[in-house]
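Sample intake sheet
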Amino acid sequence: MRAAARRIARLLGERVGGQVGYTVRGDSAASRSTRVEMVTPGVLLRRLQRDPELPAVAGVLLDEFHERDLDTDLALSFLLDARAALREDLFVALTSATLEASRTAGLLEDATGTAPALIDIPGAIHPLDVRWAPPPRGAEPLGAVGGRVGVRREFLAHVARTVESAYAGSEGDLLVFLPGVAEIERVRSLISAPGADVLPLHGRLSAAQQDAALSPGSQRRIVLSTSIAESSLTVPGVRVVVDASLAREPRLDAARGISQLATVPASRA
């Protein structure tokens, strides 16, 4: 959220907290002049629970709706109820590059009795050459690290070698997906790619640092990114994607009754 808000604000020539702001759990940059506020599904859901009428909101856009989680589904249900009973003028939009639009529209029509408008924005489809680069024996992705399950160093070394091979055998920039900041920094320290800028991309970076990763320069780039480049930001100039196939997702610790982030194999969905 922070990264996307910073990027949009910079495109408008403004600072975050002006016309463009964000609110996440424990952090907010918004003001009375904010017209576009980016929030997590959890924040939206809590606001709907406090005041389902959303009196200061003209419209809600649920982006990347195909990712589907409990908070997003509940928020959509609350929004539809608010439109039906409290706010006929409330604009609600779902956006996705991969959602089955017709099927989803049919489900919404069944739920509301009104057919939603479908807007199709065509985009270029590029050919893909998918190559499988399994780790060697002894370099499995997950194992015991510091007394808990984590990403093994041997696997990160394998990712670095795969990146080097892809860099040597291709043209253009490379985008590498890793589950977190620690893995990004580790792989960054291992990569040897003469003539390339090896750049991190994640939500903790400043706007200037993110712009460095997003803006093509005089040299080829190897951008090491979390999932932020899947849903929030677009990296131009990329010709090769190396995916470590790991994701960091919330998981319930039943013994302690709390949610915590866990590193798990990424879904192919």
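Comment: Residues 170 and 240 are 8 Å apart (CA to CA). The domain at 1-112 is CATH 3.40.50.300 (Rossmann fold).
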